[in-house]
Amino acid sequence: MQCSWKAVILLALASIAIQYTAIRTLTSKPFQLCNGGCDDYPYFSLNSSRKTHILVLATTRSGSSFVGQLLNQHQDVFYLFEPLYHVQNTLIPRLSHNSKTMNRRVMLGASRDLLRSLYGCDLYFLESYIKPTPTNHTTDKLFRRGASRALCQQPVCDAFGPSDVNVDEGDCVKKCAALNMTLATEACHEKRHVALKIVRVPEIGDLRALVEDPRLNIKVIQLVRDPRGILSSRIETFRDTYRLWRIWRATGRRPYNLDLSQLTIVCDDFLSSVSTGLSHPYWLKGKYMLVRYEDLAKNPLLKTKEIYDYLGLPMDKNVEDWIHANTRGSNEPSAKHKFGTVRDSAANAESWRLKLSYDMVEHTQMVCHKVLQQLGYKAVKSAEELKNMSISVVQDKTFVPFL
């Protein structure tokens, strides 16, 4: 009997300890109580000091590097370029070739877990996917490390001082020592906001669990671009992968074994994702903004101000200076780098019209007509109309953030 009473007392003490831990966990995170409809009472309006977790959702060759740099230039933002690159490189070789559905679930699950950890400035979690595995939390294999200002500045890198505001990505990689993940984590904690740019999550719906996580303050910027422009850019950039498209463009004859899914997947994902975002589901309230690359390229300063207004952040002078320096064209080698951001943005937005043949454009318009119409991209009816650059194929269309 005496033993049983001791057991009861021990269980009671254990229960109290567990409850205390749970209460501490909950109260260590700011939260709000609301009656009936939190949807009409955005969290971020109550706590302006809370860290903002910015997510640029895009696809390859849609202008996402440019948008990422608009955020990277802000002095209070910790930015990472494509952290999911490491997830894909690690998991794809191990996944089954027989189950695309299962592979997608595994990739998305791992991606969401990593994003959640990075928003909490837990960069150690990323080490599980970097190959070779970092030694003593140090690596020189972080993908595009130099694209992040915070990773090229003190205390992470001693090669540059406070006056070195715009460090070239190549110089950062050459002059900075191997990346110390502990220092990178500290740098992340010192910043007020975290921004991540991803192109490896197909649709906004795949991120719902992340968006609804009460520990996060997610703000999604979904970047879209005319699929015809994306196709043209991919043909120029990924020469091996899009080799058959290059043959089609050069000969005027479509190869019989051309992988058309390289185009249709883009349009299907855009259509599904944008339809979800523009339908204004409750879980995206205050957390979603759709941006067309063409609008940003035409009026970079104005559109960037709109983005920062949506994020609730002041746009500091360094962002404006970077825009002026990087949207007026350049003959520098960096302007021709496949992931570069120095360019004449307005001219670049519709330059695909001078690179694609009319039959390729016509085919794209046929398979992507729904999303072209949805996003306000006009179809061309002839080769002459295609090459007539005096007439834009981008309709004036306003996409208001879902606030």
From TrEMBL:
Entry GO terms, CC: Golgi membrane
Annotated family: Belongs to the sulfotransferase 1 family. Gal/GlcNAc/GalNAc subfamily.
PANTHER family (alphabetical): CARBOHYDRATE SULFOTRANSFERASE, CARBOHYDRATE SULFOTRANSFERASE 1
Protein name from the UniProt record: Sulfotransferase
Topology in the lipid bilayer: Single-pass type II membrane protein
GO molecular function (one): keratan sulfotransferase activity
EC number: 2.8.2.-
Matching InterPro entries: Carbohydrate_sulfotransferase, Gal/GlcNAc/GalNAc_ST, P-loop_NTPase, Sulfotransferase_dom
Cell location: Golgi apparatus membrane
GO BP of this protein: carbohydrate metabolic process; keratan sulfate proteoglycan metabolic process; N-acetylglucosamine metabolic process; sulfur compound metabolic process
Signal peptide positions on this chain: 1-22
Occurrences of domain Sulfotransferase (ranges): 52-375
Organism superkingdom: Eukaryota
Source lineage: Eukaryota, Metazoa, Chordata, Craniata, Vertebrata
Keyword tags: Carbohydrate metabolism, Glycoprotein, Golgi apparatus, Membrane, Signal, Signal-anchor, Transferase, Transmembrane, Transmembrane helix
EC supergroup of this enzyme: transferase
